[in-house]
Amino acid sequence: MADIVKQILARPIQLADQVTKAADEVCNFKQDCLEIKAKTERLAALLRQAARASSDLYERPTRRIIDDTEQVLDKALTLVFKCCARGLSRVFTIIPTAALKKTAQQLENSIGDVQWLLRVSTPADDRDDEYLGLPPIAANEPILCLIWEQIAILCTGSLEDRSDAAASLVSLARDNERYGKLIIEEGGVAPLLKLAKEGRMEGQENASRAIGLLGRDPESVEQIVNAGVCSVFAKILKDGPMKVQIVVAWAISELAKNHHKCQDHFAQTNTIRLLVSHLAFETIQEHSKYAIAANKHHMSIQAAAMAHSNSSSASNFSDHTGGKVDDDDNRTQSKIPHPMDNQTTDHMHNLVTSAMAVKNQTQNQPNNPIANPNLNQQQRQHANQQRQHHVGLTGTSIKGREYEDPATKAEMKAMAARALRHLCAENVSICSSITESRALLCFAVLLEKGPDEVQYHSAYALMEITGVAEKNADLRRSAFKPTAPAAKAVVDQFLRIINKEDSELLIPSIQSIGHLARTFRATETRIISPLVALLDDREPEVTIEAANALNKFACTENFLRVNHCKAIIQAGGTKHLVPLIYFGEQMVQIPCLKLLSYIATHVPDSEALADDNAHIVLEWATKQGHLMQDPIVEELVNKGRETMELYQSRGSRL
């Protein structure tokens, strides 16, 4: 950095010396040239001072100010050379008096710019608390100079001053998107990250909030990620104060929302695991696969009993289902047996025996310094360090959380859910990581018992996860198979919200149920009726989402489409669809028309369709140009109409 600044300053210093030397030889306008010489000497002294302090100079304003100064000195040298002309050359040389005064003023401005540069680059401990002001160069763009000043304070100020500077950048970035781009271009990200890593709590909050506000577009997020934000934020999520972690989680959600490609970068720094741990804290026990793995040598009797119970239940279920545990993609329609069926009388004896065996195995391990007294002191110390390391992996991020007030804990959960929502959007690997932990169960519990904001972000996070599962069969089978307790708990909460109907969580819950349409079995009869009920005189947004969800149950890709179509008819779906197609808004008409077409295609012999004049509705729809603009809709309607003609007589259609 120092060498670069010296190279930048070399040319202006050389020009200043040439101007000073040439001013001694002028023949015309001597008084004006002497003024130019005096100001040039002052400027040269400041430039040499800047060269000596090159290691402390802030590079971005240095380049801008020195470039302008070089142009001014170049013009001054040309003007002074003209004043040195003699004889005939003087006759043909025109030197406006105003040009000399203008050059003198420009030199004065350059002096002010370099003085400001030296002041703003001086470490806070070495300068007075006086207001730095704005340099003359700020006349054209005052905000840029204000940004320079705040970034310079971030680089050289005390922790308190750096915190105030970060707060100023927060205000600038929040007010105007262009200011945010300027902060990034002028090198503000690196000192903000340094403050987030090293500052006090208020400074960390301000720095993290500023970074979240700066990432408003993919290009900006890319630059922030390249600056190392992922590792800094992961460190804070692990060890930082909870109030700072709240802001960090919000900032992560903003960055991931505005640029999906940064999701994997955060995943590589264990951000997902840390966010899930915050989500699960005081929600459920043993929330993460990572925590279980880290504490597997310290498993309690209760944990061993639970593990044995789960394995026994799985074995019983396998016996009942012939070893098949799958979703409707594999066309399995068996019922889930009760986990306590066929339980033997010595079941509890087996649980205790298994638990004691695990405990004895732990105590008899060769690396256990308590159980093996033959280890020397160095080996015992090494073993203790290893044990402490394993325990620390799960305890570090939880340390001190229990002492926070309930409002702070709730806000932390809300921001963690918000961050997970945007991190898992359209990302299969992150969704798999989330579902392999106990996060689904956490979301289910929070949907039922969490504060409003936590419920809101949890619902939308689940909507993103189920949306990815809809497109990925492996994730759908592993995370949302009907036998999975977490998946069942999530579906139960969605149904509770849908039956309630008046919650702001209704839309994401409907969408999530639609995403999971291919996971439900034929024996699952709770899903269709609540969705059909939402078609009856609801807000257009709710009606559209309900129709779209039912379309996913009735579409050709769903193996159980016939069963679902019959369930829709039985719930009175066609009675609601007909008036919606005739009299609804266009955005409501199209999904309802698609649903009626699917039903007519898959259950053409239904008497309910004939009674509700479904064929006439489809015939009418084919003549409506605004409904037939989409070729897919046109094909569905024609197929449904033709299929009904094959199965129903003309009398039944009238």
UniProtKB/TrEMBL annotation:
Renumbered residue ranges of the record's region Disordered: 304-346, 362-399
Gene Ontology biological process terms from the UniProt entry: cell surface receptor signaling pathway
Compositionally biased tracts (Low complexity): 304-315, 362-386
InterPro entries xref list: Adaptor_Cbl_N_dom_sf, ARM-like, ARM-type_fold, Armadillo, DUF7792
Superkingdom: Eukaryota
Organism whose genome encodes this protein: Nicotiana attenuata
The entry's keywords: Repeat
A Pfam family it matches: Arm
Domain DUF7792: 6-121
Protein name per UniProt: DUF7792 domain-containing protein
SUPFAM superfamilies assigned: ARM repeat (SSF48371)
